């Protein structure tokens, strides 16, 4: 076990290179199960979640070569098995996106339910409903989702849920539908850039998809797909995290590789908070003089403010004069980081699905415990501005979604180190 020690007070200055998107890479790697031909995925970040997905595919008798230093994953799924066991699936929520491609390719599969999640209830009822619309028989028993069919048939499917469109559910439907007979229309589809990236990959494999990245996606099924070579999009949440890091430290960061068009909502709120953001030749520059203003944030499905940036924005507001309200509309219980930030001296109170944050002059370093991936990033950001040392424990959470975050921060002036517990 390791932990991160952050000594706050250093403004971040310099250049940060953004890695490829974890949330794009995971379903795209799963989508390679749809063909027996070799696929090459580039720009893949070296993260524990990526390794978990590669391990699951290997267990399914798929040939996987992960070139970690080069960010390349090579997959050849000639004869995949159709059962994904709990021992592997439990490690990562996103492994549920194996359901669509395994059913589409094999017409018979069993995938373990992924289990609970610390950020709140994340049911897969929309996944199951959609697959049934395509003609699959789906049974949940003994902790597994067992889906089978003689063939999948295109249909009209609505994917909207209580808290908006489901991203992984949309991904599963797309991957199941590309080999279905006839035309599938997915209404209420998730619009996230990661869904558009998946559609682009599948199109390069020979799929016929229209509307990827919109609320209506139309898919004309084909008999088979072929191999493809694809580079995943940059990680917009990593980029947003470093934008918030520049803001909270009063720094000046050049963020390279990020796509500004994926970050409109984050940019809007940071500028409202008094942060200066400019674009130049594909680089986003974020500067802050420390004169911050309170903002109200409501998380929403894309293109709204991302729930995966809520903890980082909460951290920024803890040291922003005035009162800010952070409302969580995607995962209403996603506030476990608030009690940990209070250990650093933050003045926060929860009221239902909102956090009321009163900015303080400064935070004070203390030991804190990461509860999930984005909470851990928020705590690291809080540590960057706190006086003294902040000890962030359970950092295996942060390693799920941030490639070498401590090294990247140290390279732009942060006093941060990773040590064994």
Model regions low in confidence, pLDDT < 50 over at least 5 residues: 116-121
**Alpha plus pi helix count:** 13
- CATH fold-level name of the largest domain: UDP-n-acetylglucosamine1-carboxyvinyl-transferase, Chain
Task: Kindly state the percentage of residues in helix.
Answer: 25-40%
Cross-sheet strand order for the largest sheet = 24-25-1-26
Quickly name the level 1 CATH class of the largest domain: Alpha Beta
CATH superfamily of the largest domain, by name, is Enolpyruvate transferase domain
Strand content: 25-35%
Mean pLDDT: 95
Which structural class best describes the helix and strand composition?
alpha+beta
Shape: elongated
For the sheet with most strands, the description reads:
4 strands, mixed
Radius of gyration: 21 Å
Which CATH architecture of the largest domain would you pick? Answer: Alpha-beta prism
Span between termini: 6 Å
Give the tally of β-strands: 26
Whole-number tally of structural domains = 2
């Amino acid at each position: 076990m390791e932990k991160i020690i952050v000594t706050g007070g250093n403004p971040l200055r310099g250049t940060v290179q953004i890695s490829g998107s974890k949330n794009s890479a995971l379903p795209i790697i799963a989508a390679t199960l749809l063909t027996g031909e070799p696929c090459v995925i580039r720009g893949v970040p070296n993260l524990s979640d990526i390794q978990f997905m590669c391990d699951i595919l290997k267990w399914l008798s798929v040939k996987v070569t992960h070139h970690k230093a080069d960010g390349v994953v090579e997959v050849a799924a000639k004869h995949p098995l159709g059962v994904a066991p709990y021992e592997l699936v439990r490690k990562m929520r996103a492994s549920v996106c194996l359901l669509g491609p395994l059913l589409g390719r094999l017409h018979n599969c069993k995938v373990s339910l992924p289990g609970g999640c610390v950020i709140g209830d994340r049911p897969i009822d929309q996944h199951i409903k959609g697959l049934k619309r395509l003609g699959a028989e789906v049974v949940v028993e003994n902790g597994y989702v067992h889906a089978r069919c003689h063939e999948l048939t295109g249909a009209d499917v609505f994917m909207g849920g209580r808290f908006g469109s489901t991203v992984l559910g949309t991904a599963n439907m797309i991957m199941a539908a590309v080999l279905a007979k006839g035309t599938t229309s997915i209404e209420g589809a998730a619009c996230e850039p990661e869904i558009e990236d998946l559609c682009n990959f599948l199109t390069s494999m020979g799929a016929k998809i229209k509307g990827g990245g919109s609320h209506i996606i139309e898919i004309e099924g084909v008999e088979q797909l072929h191999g493809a070579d694809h580079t995943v999009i940059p990680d917009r949440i990593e980029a947003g995290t470093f934008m918030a890091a520049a803001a909270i430290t009063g720094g000046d960061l050049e963020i390279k590789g990020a796509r500004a068009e994926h970050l409109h909502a984050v940019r809007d709120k940071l500028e409202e908070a008094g942060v200066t953001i400019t674009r130049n030749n594909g680089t986003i520059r974020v500067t802050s003089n420390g004169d911050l203003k309170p903002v109200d944030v409501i998380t929403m499905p894309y293109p709204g403010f991302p729930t995966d940036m809520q903890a980082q924005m909460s951290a920024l507001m803890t040291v922003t004069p005035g009162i800010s309200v952070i409302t969580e509309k995607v995962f209403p219980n996603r506030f476990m980081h608030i009690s940990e930030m209070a250990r650093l001296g933050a003045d926060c109170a929860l009221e239902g699905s909102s956090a009321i944050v009163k900015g303080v002059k400064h935070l004070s370093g203390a030991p804190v415990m990461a509860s999930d991936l984005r909470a851990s990033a928020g705590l690291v950001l809080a540590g960057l501005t706190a006086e003294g040392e902040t000890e962030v424990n359970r950092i295996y959470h942060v390693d799920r979604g941030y490639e070498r975050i401590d090294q990247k921060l140290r390279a732009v002036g942060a006093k941060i180190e990773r040590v064994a517990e």
